[in-house]
Amino acid sequence: MAEVNYNDLVLKELNYNSYLKLPELLSLQEEISQPKHHDEMFFIIIHQAAELWFKLMLHETETLVESFRDGMVSRALKALKRITRAMNLQVQQIRMLSTLTPVEFAGFRNFLRPASGFQSAQWRIIEFTFGVREPFFLRFFEKMPEIRGRLEDILKHPSVYDECLRCLHRDDHPIPEEVRERDFSKPWVMNEELVSVIQDVYESPKEHYHWVLLFEAMIDLDEAFELWRKTHAVMVNRTIGFKTGTGGSAGYNFLKSRENTKCFPELWEVRNRIGGTH
Ligand code: HEM
After folding, report:
1. CB of 251 shorter than 6 A to ligand 1
2. Is 64 contained in some domain?
3. For residue 1, is it within any domain?
4. Does residue 248 lie in a domain region?
5. Contact call for residues 274 and 198 (beta carbons, < 8 A)
6. CB 39, CB 104: distance < 8 Å
7. What letter would DSSP give residue 242?
8. How many independent structural domains does the chain possess?
9. Whole domain around residue 219: which residue ranges?
């Protein structure tokens, strides 16, 4: 007897629920606390929702990189805007955690060990892809060889920042060779000459306004990342104080030490130069 193709059935009966696979999606929130703690559902949903938005950010990042490769600055701008909106939404999501009191969180926190945000593959892919490349974080994927391999592979290739600067170079803004040909696996090193190139762009808006808009959109994204890190750190402090994290870090103090991490350092540095140094 021929096998029934259930996918076909779903397509024939396409509706809101089947298109969005809601039966599957809505059955993925499984508490592990015993007895079930009321607030664990909130904790699971807020993380799952964040991971869905991370997925969208990575999806849009493909368009962003492609746009840089094709020299389409305005298309890159559009992709950046959506990515930034999604990141800003994460800041608001983290704020929702102010509705979880320390007592409520303590009621199920021990069941979660040793799971930790350090193991968020998508977050680490986002950081590595945009240019924050700290090999320290690879250790959290030792037991996930596929993810670790993907992260190592990202380190071998240009970041979003590298792609942007290559695009700028092809548009007749000479990017220093040591920047273009750098070892992608190494953390970024601030380049003075590059700051001057960016300053020239900012100071000739009539000729280069599309680049000025793009740089400002990149600053918007870096700002959103920073706000997320700060908001997450403060939320951690109010929820678990100065306790260590379930991933073994120093918790709030560790998160605070990363707050000012930048994806596009020269775009920030140029602000010290524009209009004089005082
Ligand atoms: C009660 C809620 C939360 C607490 C207490 C908390 C706590 C922590 C702590 C202590 C760390 C440091 C790593 C460790 O030692 O485990 C961390 C990292 C992280 N958390 Fe959270 N977190 C919470 C909610 C969230 C949410 C909703 C997200 C959304 C995705 C998230 C994503 C992350 C990520 C991506 C990291 C890695 C940060 C980095 O690499 O700098 N966390 N979290």
Report:
1. yes
2. yes
3. no
4. yes
5. no
6. yes
7. T
8. 1
9. 42-273
Q: Is the pTM of this model over 0.85?
A: yes
**In angstroms, rounded to a whole number, what is the distance separating the alpha carbons of residues 227 and 160?**
20
9 CA distance to ligand 1 middle (Å)? 41
- Number of neighbours of residue 27 by Cβ within 10 angstroms: 8
pLDDT at 276: 80
| Ligand 1 atom, smallest distance to 93 CA | 27
Closest C-alpha to ligand 1, atom 41: 255
Cβ–ligand 1 distance for 123 under 6 Å, the answer yes
The helix-helix angle for 160-170 and 73-96 (nearest 10°) equals 160
pLDDT value, residue 174: 95
CATH of the domain at 224: 1.20.58.480
Q: 221: closest CA among 257, 268, 255?
A: 268
pLDDT confidence band for 7 (50 / 70 / 90): low
Could you tell me the pLDDT band of residue 13, with boundaries at 50, 70 and 90? Answer: confident
207 C-beta neighbours (distance < 10 Å), count: 10
Residue 117 CB–ligand 1 contact under 6 Å: yes
What's the CA-to-centroid distance between 5 and ligand 1, angstroms? 42
Q: What is the mean pLDDT of residues 214-220?
A: 98
CA torsion 91→130→48→98, rounded to 10°?
-20
Q: Is the pLDDT of residue 4 over 90?
A: no
d(CA 171, ligand 1 centre) in Å: 40
